[in-house]
């Protein structure tokens, strides 16, 4: 009976739950799904992380390569993120070049990196104008059950914390670079941005960490990115129903709490692999 | 080169740091020799394989296979859905199986291949065709007329024997999706060292062995029916006797892997049962 109602009138079915201040999977409106992180599983990558947010599974692999810096920013390296939503993560995506959602997610991650200054690009430069690191961050979604932006941002942060770069020196006489693969240094992570996504229902209700079903029924989404000093890095609100200032303030407060939870989780995971 | 507007681009060219690794070449050669001399690998040793079915929530059937060399393959399968071109004569009297094989950009040990590049697409197409060849005899396509079955494999890390692992994962995923099959297709890879022209064939090579191999072979077998569904390989392998021996070794390897895959399917079915009744 309930499943029949759900198929015919999914929005009504959902509203019944929202009226009681809960959701079909039993969560409160402000509750996140169980989050797990696993780092360093892909040994061919310089850093990797696998994040599970409920059913949503995202893996991020970072590969570091060397290149000449751009002419107009001779002292900066590059960070190139790319989010891929392959056909295996959900039936809504077809195989082939990245679709709209993947491109939007890639741009969002690039903005997060830029706005939050998670890594100073100057740190990636080895020799001014001659050699710099390029960090290719490939984020692949393995299972799409909503809230891909949060999971991708989290996976990126965890993978970057896991990256070990070999030390590079430029030989004075020959001008060639020498790479020492045995000696590795971790990256300097300046800020820890964490994204929190909300779905807006009927212009008034806000629901945190939406699943794929909830995202389909929602009238809008908002993503807030905060860093560890409780400062706002970016607000991503791609259209959808309008929000009052007070509601936005609630979102920011919730995002700040979420940041603390996530930071604790990352610290625990990093500490667990430290004795290496 | 046409600009790829859909992906964020970095610099036009970049090289992996391993190119300039000081003394890396001598190190590797020394290590390789030391390894071979110190512990000559038993060519018939089958290394442990981890297989788990039923882990993705969005796909009808899914499987994850991990080999001890580090190869990690994730595969998802979808049951029959309407074929793209309706009607038409019964040119395809049975259903159609469409396969896709993707490599993650961070899966290889060397340089990161540009996603979307022509060489990349070509290699993926070849691997997808090989996958389809290996899986088609195992699936009862005649039971799904005018339907399309889809299989999508993603290689997360390449530690040798990638295609063989993908074949096993794909058949597990199809079985997990509830598609009717004659048998599971089990994949096994072999390679031969360039040093010794009459040397032994190694079963399930690791990444370093595969890279310097003179000849490679990938087999797919339907163990219960004892029928080979695909043989793929080439190289300078020596006389036909040697190839015959390699085939037998590979078939033996497939037979030994079969119980592991069946166990994982059984466990997945039990888990699903428990979840439904709970």
Automatic annotation (TrEMBL), chain A:
GO terms for molecular function: identical protein binding; mRNA 3'-UTR AU-rich region binding. Residues 31-166, 193-256 form the Exoribonuclease phosphorolytic domain. Its main location: cytoplasm. Keywords: Acetylation, Cytoplasm, Exosome, Nucleus, RNA-binding, rRNA processing. GO terms for biological process: exonucleolytic trimming to generate mature 3'-end of 5.8S rRNA from tricistronic rRNA transcript (SSU-rRNA, 5.8S rRNA, LSU-rRNA); nuclear mRNA surveillance; nuclear polyadenylation-dependent rRNA catabolic process; rRNA catabolic process; TRAMP-dependent tRNA surveillance pathway; U1 snRNA 3'-end processing; U4 snRNA 3'-end processing; U5 snRNA 3'-end processing. Belongs to the RNase PH family. This is Exosome complex component RRP43. GO terms for cellular component: chromosome; cytoplasmic exosome (RNase complex); cytosol; fibrillar center; nuclear exosome (RNase complex); nucleoplasm. It is found in: Cytoplasm; Nucleus, Nucleolus. Coiled coil: none annotated.
UniProtKB/TrEMBL annotation, chain B:
The gene is EXOSC6. It is found in: Cytoplasm; Nucleus. GO terms for molecular function: RNA binding. Keywords: Cytoplasm, Exosome, Nucleus, RNA-binding, rRNA processing. InterPro entries: ExoRNase_PH_dom1, ExoRNase_PH_dom2_sf, PNPase/RNase_PH_dom_sf, Ribosomal_Su5_D2-typ_SF, RNase_PH. Belongs to the RNase PH family. GO terms for cellular component: cytoplasmic exosome (RNase complex); cytosol; nuclear exosome (RNase complex); nucleolus. Residues 46-180 form the Exoribonuclease phosphorolytic domain. Its main location: cytoplasm. This is Exosome component 6. GO terms for biological process: DNA deamination; nuclear mRNA surveillance; poly(A)-dependent snoRNA 3'-end processing; rRNA catabolic process; rRNA processing; U4 snRNA 3'-end processing.
